Amino acid sequence: MSLSQITPSLFLGGADAPLNRALMTRKGITLIVNATLSHSCPTYPGVECVRVAVPDLPTARLSEHFDRVGARIHNNRAGGTLVHCAAGMSRSPALIMAYLMKYKGVTLCQAHHWVRQSRPSIRLNSGFWDQLLDYEKRLYGKNTVKVAAPLEVPKTPKMVPRYTLRACPSSPRLGWFRR
Known about the structure:
Layout: E1 3-7, E2 10-13, H1 21-26, E3 29-34, E4 48-51, H2 66-74, E5 80-84, H3 91-104, H4 108-118, H5 126-140, H6 172-178
Parallel strand pairs: 2-5, 3-4, 3-5
Antiparallel strand pairs: 1-2
Helix pairs in contact: 2-3, 3-4, 3-5
Pfam family, one: DSPc
Keywords: Hydrolase, Protein phosphatase
Protein name: Dual specificity protein phosphatase 14 isoform X1
């Protein structure tokens, strides 16, 4: 049960997290954002489930859901929110990063750093990166992240990061959530 706390009321996890009713109760989860195709939403009293049926493919249009999901997270005053996908590595972090940009006023670079500090295993696919870059440009008129070209993958099966990000300045808004 891997559950990462992003803000005091926002959590990121994989498909197993919402299945643990005791964990959902303990964290005060009242909204589950399910960004999977095949995992069902559990039904718990007082818990709403929002479905984002998008595959984890670079061609999938996850950005079509950024505003709707961000608004739903922002307006969840009843308790905590869990955003999850199958592994909590690509779709759900991308949705959370879009939310942080729009509602917490941070750049994409800062949002990525924020989420990665809580969940180091995130690995967004290239299409979601492109969509987040477009979203940041739309929100702020510029980009703070430059995505490098994919690295050539060695023939031996070895975990190599496919993309690199440049450093970004920290945001004074991030400090508020870390207290």
